[in-house]
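Practice problem: Tryptophan 2-monooxygenase
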Amino acid sequence: TVSYVDTASPSAVQQATADWCICTIPLPILSQLPLDVSGPMKNAIDSLPYAASVKVGLQFKRRFWEEDEAIYGGISYTDLPIRNIGYPNYGFNRGGRGVLLGAYLYEGANSFEFTAMTPAERVASAVEFGAKIHPQYKSEFENGVAVAWHRVPFTLGCAGEWTEAGRAQHYRNLCQSDGRIALAGEHASQLPAWQEGAILSALDAITRLHERVVKT
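Answer key — C-alpha cells:
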C-alpha cells in the first residue's frame, strides 16, 4: 500500500494498493520517503549520490553558425566552463531564428558553480563564454533557458554517480527484488545517465517479477 498526495487535491492523503511495486522514483527523492524495505536496500538507496549537471539553451536571431561558419550539426568541445556547444542537426539553411545547446556541464566544479546561479545568471554566463567561440553571440542573442538538475525538485540531481567501491557494496542490493518491491531506472543499471540504462533496468525488473509470479 502506497500513501500519496495528489497535487489536484493536496489536502487529502490517498492510498493505492497493489500486489507488487516497481518503483522508478529517483533515489534522492526515494531516500526521503518512509519505505518498507530491508536494511541493505535502504543503505543502497541512501548511499548513491547523484551527479550535478546543467544545460543551457540559447535562441538567436539567425543561424549564424551555418550562415557565417558553415557549421552543420556537431559539437564544439571547449576548455571553458560551458564545456561544449551543440549545434542542431536538422533544418539546415532554413533561415530565421535558431537554437543552440549553449552549455552542457556534467560533474566537476563548473557544474556546481552553474547550479548555484539563478537561471538568468546561467544564461548570461553561457552567452559570455560562448562569445569567445562565436563573437556573433552578443549581437544575435535573443533569449535562453537553463536547467540545473540538482535544482529540479522531482529528481534533485541528474543521474546516479556510481563508483567502483559503491557498486561493489550496494549495486546488487539495489537491483534485487526486496519483498514485493523492485527498483528500476538508470540508477539501477550499468549505464547510468542514459535512457538505454533505464529501459534495460525496467526490463530486468519486469522479468524478475514475472518469473517470481509464475513460480508462485
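Discussion: The radius of gyration is 22 Å. Students who identified this feature from the C-alpha cells alone can consider the problem solved.
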